[in-house]
Each structure stands twice: as C-alpha cells, then as structure tokens.
C-alpha cells in the first residue's frame, strides 16, 4: 500500500540562493582517481571530461584529502621525466611519479569548465612552500615564482579562488589539537596572498562529523569578524567531513552491492544524519557569526563501503548502486535547506574512488556512469537557483530503524528563470508513496518528470549493463486544482520541473 504525504510550497517566498558549488567534486591522488581515471597514458581522458561537463561541475578539489598534507607541489612541475617520485603513504604505499601536477590539474579544470579548489599542505609543508604555490599560480608580471611558471610554459597566471589550509588536521593532516591547528591556519593563511585581482577564499580544515567543539575553536580564532584586515589574514570558511558508513565497525563497512534490506535502511539513517550535523555546526557558527560571513564547506561527503573483492584495499574502489543514488538525493535536499550557511560541498570522489560518478574498467578502459552520476545530472537545475521552503501538511511517512526513525520521503525545491524544480526521494524499499504538494503564490503549468529507479536497491551499472540504472521519463505526475501530485515508486528518485 502506498504511503501518503502532503506538503505546501510557497513559490513566491524566496529562501537562500543555492550555490552551484554545493555540487562540487573531489579528486585525490588515491587509487585510480587521477592515474587510471582522469589521467591515462600521460593524457587527460577526454571521455571522462565530456561526461563530467554534462554535469556542469562547478569546482574540483585536489590533490587531497590526506594526500594533500604530504604533497610537495614543486615535485609536480617541469619536464615530467625529471620529476621526482615519492611514496603515497596513505593510499596503498604506491609510488607517485608526480606526472599529474599543477599544470595538468589546471588544464583539467579548464577542460571541465570548473573552478580549481586547491588543498595546500599544512601537515608536512612549510608556510613558504604554500605561499610560493599561490604566487606560482596567481601572480602576474615579474617575480621568482611567476618566472618559474613562465619557464614551465604558462605565461598568464591562473585564477584560483578556493584555497584549503590543510586537510583533516585532527587526523592524517598532522594529528593536531583544534587550538594548535587554528593558530597554524592563521599563520599559513597570512602568507597566502591575493595577487592582482585574484582573491583567495581560504578554507580552514574543519571538523570530523559531529565534532562541534572543533568548529567552536576555529570560530573563536577566526579574528574579529567586523575587521577586514584581520579576516584577510585568516580564513573565510571552515570545512567539515561526513561520510555515510553502514557497517558495525571501521573494519567492516559492508559491501557496496551485497547488502540486505536492514543494511539498506541503516545506510539511509546514516545519510540522513547530515541534517543534524550541518545544523550542529551552523548553530555554533551562528553564535559567533550571526551575519553569516563565514562559510561552511562540506568538502568530503559520500558513502564509504568495503573495497570490491580482489582490489587494493588502499585504493577505495567500490561499486555504486541505486542505494548510493538515494544517499545523494537525501544529501542534496539537506544542502538546499542549509544553503544560507553551506557555501560548498564536494562528493568523495569523482572517478573510481568511494561514491564515484564514473567508474572505468582497468582492463578494457570502459567508462560507466553510476546511479550517483544521474542524480547530479537530474538535480543540475538547482545550481544557483533560489531555494524554496517546503512546509509539511501531514507528517511525512517514516519507519523505525534500530533506535532511529527514518523519514522515508525526502524533498526539496527551487526556482530559477521562471522554472520550478522539485526533487523527491522515496527511501521506502517496498512501498510507493503518493505526494500531494499544494502550490501557493504562483501557478504551475506544464510539468515534466524524470525518474531514477530499478528493480532492486542493489542494482548498479557495469560495462556489460551500463544503463541498468538510468533515468527515464516519469508519467506518475499531474497538476490539478493548484496542487502537484507525484507518485513515487518504492526506492526511487524523481525530479519534477515545470513553468511558473
Ligand atoms: O576521501 C578519502 C579520504 O577520506 C581523504 O583522503 C581524507 O580526507 C578522508 O579521511
């Protein structure tokens, strides 16, 4: 039997703007993300670029992750054959040849039409090293680093806005206390200069999940918010990381594809926790910064399961099912609700690692678009749109999962250029949901809908069945009497767009 849910959408009551950067990405020197994913046989894979361009990806974070705090950028410039090698100690202990470095990354961003988000090395680097990287990338005219860049074939400086001051400083980024890191972030941030009209937006390495104390320490240390001079020497935003974990322990995270219904619901509860986590950090930030001048950046999120059998445990290669797509749908609904404080989010990671958009076959090279890819594509219209508040009229359907109560219908809406876009997920694995949304403050005309679902939540795409989980037109939608009605089959993600 179908569950029912009624909501109200005031299409003329504007919420905050949904930054396109909430649809950001992350590519680390980890497993087959860069080498064997983006970069193959000494060249950027253009079919990967083409697939990602269709998502309109706004930014790409690089080179880590944990790798960022052991990366020395000078090793990755100049003639490739002369670049020194190093050991990637975090990810499989493999040798890194530094063939993909600054120039290659900036070229990739140009091809993608995405803004670079560079994570600098605080953990094992120096202030000088980071300061010179900024100079190398962004300084015009004559200076030691600008000359070096030109000698390496690039005359014009690049534009770089997003700059990370280390990564996970509480762990792989140096095992620091929050107090110590806050001082380090201010010190490193001070020497990351704005050259010409390039203005950095510096992002301090933030909390692990629900560690609100970390956020509070960084907020205390950010300086006097009213004083531009002090802010410009510190950081403009704080990050936070939250992964969706299902298994009982870190060592047993569960299979990406072989899971039962109980595990499915446990995953959904873990995903939905993002709401509580963002609310917790936002509340701490509001206490210190009620004017919301400091941004919150969720620069790592996504599912983390056991690696696929037979693959290198350090490479974090996992399949991606309809369950992952629903995890993404739930996250985006929450992001849209927090769009006033949340300025950026980056899924981990774009190709061949964790909750990827694209998987490439190591032998044949075949490229597979995952169910998560399709959610990014279907939700594209929310980028830079005005978020709209959804008010519930009847309690949304829910079910008990262990000690938690999982709301099984999730939705969010936005308006852009006279078009309404509503995203809805039915997390119930067995029952459809009928949703009635009363439209107030405007008239909704023709609507069209797309659906992403499949026979089972475990379904996924492979080189042999690349479209097992792919979007289709959905006819379970209608508008009558000022209300939009949507039928959501069990375990489905639906987008409805219409003209206002
Ligand atoms: O995304 C994989 C890893 O997860 C990142 O390198 C690190 O920041 C996090 O712990």
UniProtKB/TrEMBL annotation:
Q: Which residues form a coiled coil?
A: none
Q: What class of enzyme is it?
A: hydrolase
Q: Which residue ranges does the record assign to the Alpha-L-arabinofuranosidase C-terminal domain?
A: 299-492
- Nucleotide-binding is among the record's keywords: no
Tell me what reaction this enzyme catalyses: Hydrolysis of terminal non-reducing alpha-L-arabinofuranoside residues in alpha-L-arabinosides
Keyword set for this entry?
Answer: Carbohydrate metabolism, Glycosidase, Hydrolase
Keyword Flavoprotein in annotation: no
| Source superkingdom | Bacteria
Q: Name one Pfam family in it.
A: ASD1_dom
* Annotated EC: 3.2.1.55
Provide the family line.
Belongs to the glycosyl hydrolase 51 family.
Q: How does it assemble?
A: Homohexamer; trimer of dimers.
User: What is the name of the protein in this document?
Assistant: non-reducing end alpha-L-arabinofuranosidase
């Amino acid at each position: 039997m179908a569950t029912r849910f009624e909501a109200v959408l005031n299409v003329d009551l504007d919420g905050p703007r949904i930054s396109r950067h909430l649809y950001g990405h992350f590519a680390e020197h980890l497993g087959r993300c860069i080498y064997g994913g983006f970069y193959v046989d000494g060249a950027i894979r253009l079919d990967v670029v083409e697939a990602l361009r269709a998502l309109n990806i706004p930014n790409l974070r690089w080179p880590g992750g944990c790798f960022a705090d052991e990366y020395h950028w000078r090793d990755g410039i100049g003639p490739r054959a002369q670049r020194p090698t190093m050991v990637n100690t975090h990810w499989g202990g493999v040798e890194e040849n530094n063939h993909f470095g600054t120039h290659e990354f900036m070229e990739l961003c140009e091809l993608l039409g995405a803004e670079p988000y560079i994570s600098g090395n605080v953990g094992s680097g120096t202030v000088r090293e980071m300061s010179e990287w900024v100079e190398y990338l962004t300084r015009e005219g004559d200076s030691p680093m600008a000359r070096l860049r030109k000698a390496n074939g690039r005359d014009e400086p690049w534009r770089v806005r997003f700059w990370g001051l280390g990564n996970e400083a509480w762990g792989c980024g140096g095992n620091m206390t929050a107090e110590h890191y806050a001082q380090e972030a201010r010190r490193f941030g001070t020497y990351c200069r704005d050259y010409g009209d390039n203005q950095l937006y510096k992002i301090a390495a933030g909390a692990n999940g629900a560690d609100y104390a970390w956020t509070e320490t960084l907020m205390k240390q950010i300086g006097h918010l009213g004083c531009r001079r002090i802010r410009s020497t510190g950081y403009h935003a704080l990050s936070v990381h939250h992964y969706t974990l299902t298994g009982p322990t870190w060592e047993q995270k569960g299979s990406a594809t072989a899971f039962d219904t109980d595990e499915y619901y446990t995953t959904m509860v873990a995903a939905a926790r993002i709401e509580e986590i963002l609310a917790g950090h936002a509340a701490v930030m509001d206490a210190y910064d009620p004017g919301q001048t400091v941004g919150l950046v969720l620069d790592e999120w996504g599912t983390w399961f056991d690696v696929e059998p037979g693959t290198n445990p350090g490479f974090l290669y996992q399949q991606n099912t309809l369950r992952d797509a629903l995890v993404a749908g739930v996250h985006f609904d929450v992001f849209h609700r927090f769009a006033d404080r949340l300025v950026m989010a980056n899924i981990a990671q774009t190709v061949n690692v964790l909750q990827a958009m694209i998987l490439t076959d190591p032998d044949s090279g075949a490229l597979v678009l995952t169910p998560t890819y399709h959610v990014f594509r279907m939700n594209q219209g929310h980028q830079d749109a005005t978020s709209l508040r959804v008010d519930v009229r009847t309690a949304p359907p829910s079910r008990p999962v262990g000690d938690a109560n999982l709301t099984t219908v999730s939705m969010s809406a936005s308006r852009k250029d006279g078009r309404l876009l509503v995203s809805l997920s039915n997390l119930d694995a067995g029952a459809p949901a009928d949703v009635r949304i009363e439209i107030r403050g405007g008239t909704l005309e023709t609507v069209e809908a797309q659906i992403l679902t499949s026979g089972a939540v475990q379904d996924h795409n492979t080189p042999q069945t690349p479209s097992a989980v792919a979007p289709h037109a959905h006819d379970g939608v209608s508008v009558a009497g000022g209300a939009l009605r949507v039928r959501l089959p069990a375990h489905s993600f639906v987008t409805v767009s219409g003209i206002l």
